[in-house]
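Page header: ASSEMBLY MODEL / two components / 833 residues total.
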Amino acid sequence: MEGGSVSGSASALSNDENLVVSCEDSCSPVGNELELGLTLSLGRKGYTRVAYADDSSSSSSSSSSSLSRASVIAGIKRTADSMAATSGQVVGWPPIRTYRMNSMVVNQAKTLVSEDQNSEIRQEVNKNRTDATNMRSSMFVKVTMDGIPIGRKIDLNAHKCYESLSNTLEEMFLKPKTGLSTRETDGRMETPVKILPDGSSGLVLTYEDKEGDWMLVGDVPWGMFIGSVRRLRIMKTSEATGKAQMIL
Amino acid sequence: MALRLPSKVLKHILSFIDSNEDRNSVSLVCKSWFETERKTRKRVFVGNCYAVTPAAVARRFPAMRSLTLKGKPHFADYNLVPDGWGGYACPWIESMAAKSPYLEEIRLKRMVVTDDCLERIAASFKNFKVLVLTSCEGFSTDGIAAIASTCRNLRVLELRECIVEDLGGDWLSYFPETSTSLVSLDFSCLDSEVKISDLERLVSRSPNLKSLKLNPAVTLDGLVSILRRAPQLTELGTGSFAAELKPEAFTKLSKAFSNCKQLQSLSGLWDVLPEYLPALYSVCPGLTSLNLSYATVRMPDLVELLRRCSKLQKLWVMDLIEDKGLEAVASYCKELRELRVFPSEPDLDATNIPVTEQGLVYVSKGCRKLESVLYFCVQFTNAALITIARKRPNLKCFRLCVIEPFAPDYKTNEPLDKGFKAIAEGCKDLRRLSVSGLLSDKAFKYIGKHAKKVRMLSIAFAGDSDLMLHHLLSGCESLKKLEIRDCPFGDTALLENAAKLETMRSLWMSSCFVSFGACKLLSQKMPRLNVEVIDEHPPKTRPESSPVERIYIYRTVAGPRMDTPEFVWTLHKNPEIGVSKLAIK
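Prediction written out in full:
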């Protein structure tokens, strides 16, 4: 029996693409629970999920336009699997705090070092602490942009090259519709790749390395960059030039 | 004529009541009890900083000396809440500075704290004693220096897993030159080195110091020198335990530990070399709490350590302990109350399974006082859950994380419904529950029906339909916090049970199927709830049926909040948009 015969209570069932929702005060549970329960349980076998046909802008990783419970579950699972395959992780899963995650990655590096090797090697492993974050896991670093008080975090291990990092940062900070950018949007949407230190975008991407020095992003091979980066900062070109002189 | 208890008498009686839950009940009896209670409450707890305004709190509790605040929802710990969402401590500090200058203790969890904020605390509260920041961010070591230098009566300064902009170890030298009143110092989350000489001098002039948690930058040598100066410590977080293997180093370490006759709690132990573990043997018999969760120590070494810890009540360890090690724990650590087993591999696809359900079964059978469990493993069985429930009906907190989403009982291929049913039915005092693995709506029917005392429930990748949420929201009498991710439902159950949401602190749902239309409707119908739609990339237009990425709903008497970032939608910010489609088919 289809659940479509429910009347009066809030129902998410529909046979067209719009999700319909009851506006009546029957939204309050009094008197409707039995009906709801009965209907839903009877309707379960043939329960149809609403097709979100117009959710082209949906950004939920696990939302899907599948129609049956099974394919909904499968959809979530597929997403989880595919995300697991690409980055080794679903966001925020397993539920382990970032601090602990980063420590775990260091441990992974150590288990590769055999048990009875001496401590010199262990010390080297410690020194290469950030190198170890090359391993499949997340490596979150803070990214701040001049003029924006709130920083963001980005997982560097989700990227394999500067270009993809740059694209993500552009999306994060310069996407005009999120309004995060405090700059005027004229022409900024076509901002060239931010890493280019030629000042054409007015912005420059820099990072602080293990030693506390601020460097321009893009100068060293990606692997080396990952191994020494502690945090990122999108600077105004004018400031960066000053700093660059200090480094050079 | 009604008999009235003279307020002096009532005050005296209330001075024996510490629990805020009890005090909340007292304040509901009648107006005069409300008045007496509020004027005598010293420790104020606010579980959601947006549920009430700082001014209202200050007004109601003029005798407040201790304030505890929580900001971001729990799932922020796992990166599910975008940066900039909120949870700012500043408005609270500003308000307290003006209205509650006698405040002595501030405890903040998951809040954004700035250096300005810390400086304000230092400057405004003359008798400031306790600052505990847990999972906070937004400040630097400069702010810590301000607290250290200005708060002359500081007793407790703890930074627990905070994200701190570390500008160097100088902050340590800002404590007053004469003796300090420090009882507890925790800087384990800081990165950079502190000068050992600064630390030594600080410890030497802090005669009341009982708890010290060092950061990984402190070496073994440093640790030895600190321990020599502070043998009275009851809680120690070591720094890095790695050093070149030298016999003298080992002897020194051993001796230093054996002098610490009052040590009850040990943590830190980063990079610990198994060869150095025997240095700890002398303190093991007295330990009640041991955190080995950052120590990559493996089996035989672990057991050698643990079998000496007969008084252990709290054990945090990595899955390197294996089932065998847990079996040993079950036989040696009979006082165990809390067990947490963390994964050593961050990888989802790890096929190497160091612990299985058997490990937890061993501990459940052997440790009669076990009441709190956090267990990560790859898969589980109903039989194990049933055994655990039967053996340990006294469980208060049960958090099982089966790492593989949708993993069924690997022996029978069934969902874990029966197992969690046993837990919900058997553990009548259960207050906190996290479920995982393959679960159908049935599991939640049992949980809704039997888990009468559960206050916090966490769910991921589970259920079949809205029935699941309906079971939970219409059951679970004590439910206060519900957090759900990646479950296939939303609107129906949410709207049907809207009234329940006012009895709860908060509901979090992410990557579920809650539609935008339902969010709007809920916002409109329930003015005493704040409904926040959090989309990191909000679309230009939002059709009613489009699912939202995340929804965070919480009850509040403070009204809509004014500090939401761009990516948080609230009805208050978008009042002209009404619910358009109201048809029922």
